Structure formats: C-alpha cells, structure tokens
Amino acid sequence: MTGSSREVILGVGAGIAAYKSCDLLRRLQERGYGIRVVPTPSSLNFVGAATWEALSGRKVLTQVWEEIENVSHIAIAKETDYFLIAPATADLIARIAAGRADDLLTNLVLAANVPMLIVPAMHPNMWNNKATVTNVATLRSRGYLVLEPEIGRLTGSDSGQGRLPDTATIISAFDSMTGNLRDLVGVKLLVTAGGTREAIDPVRFIGNRSSGKQGVSVAKAAALRGATVHLIAANIDTESIPGVEITHVESTDGMRRALGESFPTCDILVMAAAVADAKPKDLQSQKIKKANFNTIALEPTPDLLAELAAIKGNQVMVGFAAETSDLKTSAQSKLLAKGLDVIYVNDVTDGAIFGKDTTQGMILTRSGEDIELKELTKDALADILLDHAKRQLG
User: Fold this and answer.
1) How many Å apart are CA 9 and CA 73, to the nearest integer?
2) DSSP 8-state symbol, 354
3) Mean pLDDT by 10 residues, the chain (394 residues)
4) Which of 69, 75, 90, 119 has the fewest Cβ atoms nearer than 10 Å?
5) In the annotation, is 208 catalytic?
6) Is there a contact between 318 and 389 (Cβ–Cβ < 8 Å)?
7) CATH number, domain 7-178, options 3.40.50.1950, 3.30.70.3400, 3.40.50.720, 3.40.50.880
8) Contacts of 87 (CB under 8 A, 6+ apart)
9) C-alpha torsion angle, residues 247, 249, 255, 259 (rounded to 10)
10) Which residue out of 208, 292, 294, 314 is catalytically annotated?
C-alpha cells in the first residue's frame, strides 16, 4: 500500500466509450485518488497509451511481459486499494467471469483482492445476450459491483440499454463503494493559502514563492467532502470556489486578524500559507529612491501558529514545513513546538514543488505516525491530510 488508501487501478476495455474514461480519470484525480490506467491491448485502438500517460502522469502497461523484472501484475496489485473498470465490454466481462488472465488487466483482477466496480458499455443486443446476463450475474455473486448501462443513443443510429453511465453516476457509485462520501459534514474547516507580503514601501515588499495551490486544493477537497470551509487567501488569484468562503489578505497582520476571528469556532485548521518570517521595522509611505535603497531594518513577524496553539481548545491543527535538509528532524521539532497534530514536510531545494501541481514529502502526526509519500498530486495530498485530520479529530 502507498499509505494514502486512495490508489486506484482504472481498467479500460476496448469499446468506443473508452474516450469518456479520460474525463472519469480527471474527476477521480480531483477527488484525491491516485490513478494507474491499465488498458487492454485492443482498447489502445480507441485511446492510446500516450494519452493515458499524459493524463495520469504514470507509465501505462498492458501486457504481463512488460517490466518482467518487477513482476508487474503482482506489484501493481499490492499497491492498489480499489479497482474500477470503465468501459467493460462483453468480451472483458466474459474473460473476468471465466477467470482468464490473458493480459495485464485480467491478471490484476485475479491478483488484487480489493473492492471492484465494473461499468459495462456495449450494444443492447450484447448486453441482453444470455451469455452476458449469466456472466454479469456471476460477477455480482462474487461480490463485484456491476453498474447497469444507461439507455440512449449508441454508435450509429442504434439506441437502447448499453451506453456507459455518465461520469457523475460512476463517481457516485465509486464513492459509495470506497466510502469517500461527504464524511466531513458538520465539520468547520479553516485553511490558509498563499504567501504573505510585508510592504517595504508602496512598490516593494518582502514575500516568498508560495503559489497557494496546496491550500486551495485542501479547501476544494474539504468542500467536496461536506465541510463548512473558510479559506484565508494571501495574494492568490482565486476569486471563488464552490462551497468555500474566501477572505483575501495581504500581510501577516492581515492573516493574523482573519485567523483570530475564525479560529475559535473552527474544528480543523490547515495552515498551508507560507507566512513571511520578517517585516521592515519602518514602512515608508513614499517609494524609496534606488540611490537610497541600501539597507532594510527588519523585525520578526508574529508566530501565528504559536499564538493559536496557546488558545487551542479541541481543534486539530495541520501545519506545513518547507525544508532543504533534515526534513524529519525539522518536522518533528515544529510539530511539538507549534502544538500541531499533523505536519507535512517537503524538500524545497532549488525551489522544488513551488507552483507545481505535484509534491512529495512526509507526513508526521502527534500520535506517532510517520508516512513517506512519493510524488503525487497536491489534490491527492489534500485528501490524505484531511483523512489524518479527521482521525485526529476523532
């Protein structure tokens, strides 16, 4: 297992509806799942491996004979938490029902002992054929969840029951199977994002390279899971996120005021913003001329996490640490010093991860968990952090 409990094999059968699974992949990623696409060899006639690799960010294999040294059909099976096949053709359903293992996908079906959702798509005559009816009944008797195809227009002029269900229907069924439901309903979540700026004069400021992407991903994920979400955004362009209240701030003092108003009533605080460590002692009301711009006297900014820890009640606090060395040691120190329950630390040497959609690092918790995460999307990390925060909340 990866530690995220959100690794999914997306199997793709050789049907024209395979193109619709491109959108399905994206929607699953947005919900925090890590996706490995395993197409059948014939399905590559509809959507090529290059497309799946570009969308998933992962190498695509179709045959057992690829990467033999890794024993891929066993290695991939061990890493997955859930299995989703869409579209599943009549042939693919028949091969799974018969226990065949003649490509990588069917090998993985046999090797992966995880919850499985199968989404059929085929011509109505094939769906209603007695062989298919029997095969579907066999799969359901083994505990597989098999959706009913939708009724509608198919390839050419034909219509009937055989269309691939729309993405929302598949996602809803998959969420029901995985338990990735609105599990944060009633939880008030406060999240900060972006980087604070400390003015030097009307033109210049002290800032940092935070893009705010991780904090925004947390806000979106929490809203999807039913939480009441308040995002304090420092110098990022996000204007609206469905289900999220947004307060825009610029400086550390502005964030301090916004946190002071909202923290006492929240259940979880995710402090993803990069707060400036220092600010000028004297703010100049006029632009400093270049010839006079020699030195800046600095003073520390308030330690926002330490201040909040001092008034913390039952809230769960999640923090971040951007380090260039001794990641684990630095994170453990910050976890204790700042009164955090969960911390995520990553290596930002040479500006790594800033502004990117992916990240990698380590999660530490007050209860002693220590989880190393290989490269994953910031959307996926958001859900993993929320999982840990929810557990700490109890």
Assistant:
1) 12
2) T
3) 66 95 90 89 96 93 78 82 96 97 94 94 95 96 92 81 89 83 88 93 85 91 90 88 91 96 97 91 83 84 92 94 80 90 85 69 89 81 90 87
4) 69
5) yes
6) yes
7) 3.40.50.1950
8) 12, 13, 15, 17, 18, 20, 21, 119, 120, 121, 122, 164
9) -10
10) 208
